[in-house]
Amino acid sequence: MRHGYTTGACATAVTKAALLALITNEEQETSTIHLPIGRDATFTIEKCTFACNAVSCETIKDAGDDPDATHKALIIGTVSWADTPGIHLDGGIGVGRVTKPGLPVAVGEAAINPVPRKMIHNTVQSVLDEFHIDRGVNVIISVPAGEEIAKKTLNGRLGIIGGISILGTRGTVVPFSSSAYMASIVQAISVAKAAGCEHVVVTTGGRSEKYAMAQYPELPEEAFIEMGDFVGFTLKHCKRLGIKQVSLVGMMGKFSKVAQGVMMVHSKSAAIDFNFLAQLAVDVGADEDTVSAVREANTASQVGEIMADKGYQAFFDHLCAACCYSSIHHTRGGLTLATSIYSMQGQLLGRADDIASIDEINWDRG
């Protein structure tokens, strides 16, 4: 299936084109940028407009074969010289603004995630260095249809108002194919088994896999399997193929769902149950104010911040144990489970090891 590009990559490309046009006074027809995955990509600039000491460049997002809500969206970058030093990035029409805590962007700021922010800043600085320019730059990213597109996303529920988020950690969009992804998981487990692995580590993505490899340096590469959102499917196939020990490594958001018994953890599959997380907080002796804050949180990451700030380390271990219990219930036993939860920055928040059974589970209850 054909890969596409993220809104973050598109925003970076139009920003670079607009800055080059501002410097050279020449219209740009294409824009080549360096992606986080380590390769270059060239974007077509659909329009280049000079007006009021600023330049705006436009591109149309191509999401490839991924069923992405932002496919074919018009992304605009407007660049002008700033009166103060530095690179000043903001969102314009159609880019949402953060109104609730718990997201990777501060309240009040445009919903441009950390990796796209870094891409835009680095690209702007590279162009300025190339032309030996020492001036401040204003950058505004706009998506004219963004507010309408956002209705198809979870932005409203997350408190991102007025448009879409500018996202992407790779720069590219990998097409989502459930059957193909599940087939690759089964193949990976089979390869691990054939390589003699009795212990495999399953992760939700590349970042958590990096943390997992650091946690389990003694295991061979074949033992690490990216399961994506397919937690239950992966665990059942580990059992079916005779894997004895499985370690789950991931982050608060998806593993909060696993702990509450959700085994397909795509963002649209089920909501975080904050009452469940609040009960876990009660279990570890959290005070009433903390429990109330957990119940009223906006995201699982925010819950993690609340509990970490209050010093309730036991909460994270308890959450990890709950992941193990839910997983064992789902597979009806047959595996020894461990769970580790990391922060986005790679800090180990909690861990539970060597859980193989739950006495109170009735395996006949369906």
Automatic annotation (TrEMBL):
Entries under SUPFAM superfamilies matching the protein: CbiD-like
Organism: Lysinibacillus parviboronicapiens
EC number: 2.1.1.195
First-tier enzyme category under EC: transferase
Keywords: Cobalamin biosynthesis, Methyltransferase, S-adenosyl-L-methionine, Transferase
Phylogenetic placement of the source organism: Bacteria, Bacillati, Bacillota, Bacilli, Bacillales
Oxidoreductase among keywords: no
Pathway: Cofactor biosynthesis; adenosylcobalamin biosynthesis; cob(II)yrinate a,c-diamide from sirohydrochlorin (anaerobic route): step 6/10
Family that this chain belongs to: Belongs to the CbiD family.
Single Gene Ontology BP annotation: methylation
Protein name: Cobalt-precorrin-5B C(1)-methyltransferase
Reaction it catalyzes: Co-precorrin-5B + S-adenosyl-L-methionine = Co-precorrin-6A + S-adenosyl-L-homocysteine
A Pfam family assignment: CbiD
A GO MF label: methyltransferase activity
